[in-house]
Design brief:
The protein is of the alpha/beta class and about 325 residues long. About 35% of the residues lie in helices and about 25% in strands. The strands form 2 sheets. It has an 8-stranded mixed sheet with strand order 7-8-9-3-10-11-13-12. Strands 1, 2, 4, 5 and 6 form a 5-stranded antiparallel sheet that branches. Bound molecules: adenosine-5'-diphosphate and magnesium ion. The site of magnesium ion has 3 residues, from α1.
């Protein structure tokens, strides 16, 4: 289980993540959802210290993986955890692969870094698992640039699975590949997740996709959790005006009854954060008190939390 409690991340003097907490349990799919710039990637990667120390200041009450406190471990230890216990699948598979090494060499390097005995059968097995079984011999000799976008993302997933992680963080894994392949890659991730009983933290800006695949959804905006709950809770009774607006965009797309509906305005830049609700400027339900402070994340039920003055029976 991965548990992050009250994560704060600053780049220089600008705080971009302002107290985000989340948990990913074995076998559970949790999505981190929000528009571009809302703090999804930083919330997922900063706990693993994947930003240079000089750049990012990371503070948290707790960053725990199973029985390990990641706040306390040093860089050497962390290197054995990244990849090995927490796998990562990034947006751009091209960037995840080393450009000047054949796919086989990349598997070899991974096994060296993690002190694993080289076993080609294991490699062939994971290539088969990601649907490259028939092409495995050829793919292993290829250089990353020779792969199609879909093949590259399959290889990235195979490299991730090769280390048998407990948790996978997938950061917009389908946004840089052809739309027709989105479903294929998502299905592949879901099948693997299920088969291996992995915890999956799925980062996306796609509300429809998130609601379709996850057990729980965490909606981020302005470096804060605005709403979180089970998929059913969010879908059947969304409470935050931001969640409701995101859902309206999906419904408009699906029913085509409204003209293509998109949210007004732009996500706030962290340099513009103030001690007000970050969504106030775009919120259809805004009131003067929304500018007077950041609302607390309130409990609607044990699993459903909302950060809005309108939620929690106060209106
Ligand atoms: N390395 C960095 N240095 C400075 N600012 C950053 C860095 N990485 C991200 N940010 C800022 O942090 C905010 C959140 O970014 P990010 O988590 O990447 O958003 P997203 O929700 O799109 O994944 C953005 O405003 C972004 O500009
Ligand atoms: Mg991102």
């Amino acid at each position: 289980m991965l548990k992050i409690d009250q994560l704060h991340v600053k780049f220089g003097s600008t705080e971009v993540v302002r107290g985000v907490s989340y948990t990913v349990r074995p076998g559970e799919i949790v999505s981190l959802l929000g528009e571009s710039g809302s703090g999804k990637t930083v919330s997922a990667l900063a706990p693993l210290k994947l930003y240079s120390k000089h750049l990012a200041t990371v503070n948290a009450d707790q960053i725990v993986l199973g029985d390990i406190d990641l706040v306390k471990v040093d860089e050497k230890w962390l290197n054995t955890i990244r990849g090995k216990r927490i796998g990562m699948v990034f947006q751009n598979p091209g960037e995840a692969l080393s450009p000047h090494m054949s796919i086989k060499s990349q598997f070899k390097e991974l096994s060296q870094v993690h002190d694993m005995k080289w076993d080609l059968d294991v490699v062939l097995k994971v290539l088969d698992e990601v649907g490259l079984g028939d092409d495995a011999a050829r793919v292993l000799e290829m250089m990353p640039y020779q792969l199609s976008g879909g093949q590259a993302q399959r290889v990235t997933i195979a490299l991730t699975l090769f280390l048998s992680p407990e948790i996978i963080i997938a950061d917009e894994p389908t946004s840089s590949i052809d739309a027709s392949l989105t479903e294929v890659i998502v299905t592949l991730l879901l099948e693997t997740q299920k088969k291996r009983n992995l915890g999956l933290l799925f980062i996306t800006h796609d509300f429809e996709l998130a609601s379709r695949i996850s057990d729980r959804m965490i909606i981020l905006y302005g470096g804060l959790v605005m709403e979180e709950g089970t998929c059913d809770q969010i879908f059947e009774s969304p409470k935050h005006p931001y969640t409701i607006e995101l859902m309206r965009c999906v419904n408009a797309l699906r029913t085509k009854t409204e003209r293509l509906y998109t949210l007004n305005g732009y996500a706030l830049d962290p340099t513009e954060f103030t001690e007000a609700c970050p969504f106030a400027a775009r919120c259809p339900q805004v009131e003067p008190r929304c500018h007077e402070g950041i609302p607390e994340l309130r409990e609607i039920t044990a699993t459903h939390h909302v950060r809005c003055v309108h939620a929690g029976g106060l209106t």
